[in-house]
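Our collaborator T.R. sent over the components below with a one-line note: 'Predict the complex.' Nothing else. No constraints on interfaces, no templates requested, no preferences about which chain binds where. So this is a plain run: every listed entity goes in together, and whatever single assembly comes back becomes the starting point for the next discussion.
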Amino acid sequence: AQTVTQSQPEMSVQEAETVTLSCTYDTSENNYYLFWYKQPPSRQMILVIRQEAYKQQNATENRFSVNFQKAAKSFSLKISDSQLGDTAMYFCAIKYQGAQKLVFGQGTRLTINP
Amino acid sequence: DAGVIQSPRHEVTEMGQEVTLRCKPISGHDYLFWYRQTMMRGLELLIYFNNNVPIDDSGMPEDRFSAKMPNASFSTLKIQPSEPRDSAVYFCASSWGTPRTDTQYFGPGTRLTVL
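Returned assembly:
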């Protein structure tokens, strides 16, 4: 069974700082996808970044990047130059290739302070 | 594109009443998902459809829950009768079919409160 663990329930940093959110997962599959979703106070689930497990290159989307360590089953999210609008819950999720079910971690509540 | 649309955004009802949540997926998407989010259990997949056909409903908690997708642009999740423990945020999500099935796009959610 797939499991996703986010070991940091809450984090808080100052605006413009860099912050890294941790995520580890457990799977016996070789082909899968990993995601980070953001849930601001508006409650909307917003895709931040995705990573295909077969790609060695880490995904990057503007200020957001991941550190994907397949052997260690680790998938951390780095937010550079953090902004007040980054304040949200962040969820890590995994999905097998060919399957449809997304398995989510419990989330990390990130607060960006002015 | 307008994204996934859900209605209502908020629903407050009394125990025993029937509740119907609605979803319009992104046009062209072949898959539709219903999730429930609670503090205790986090985000859980309830059921998903492919081309309007229910594929996996193993996450539906009880027979009180039912979901339908009468056409490609509309789905409902019904709870009858509702109970206080059904209080949660219910999300609808959709994605493309094969081979682009990896990313699910979520609607804004419906916050359900059952008194």
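Summary for T.R.: The CA atoms of residues 7 and 22 of chain A lie 7 Å apart.
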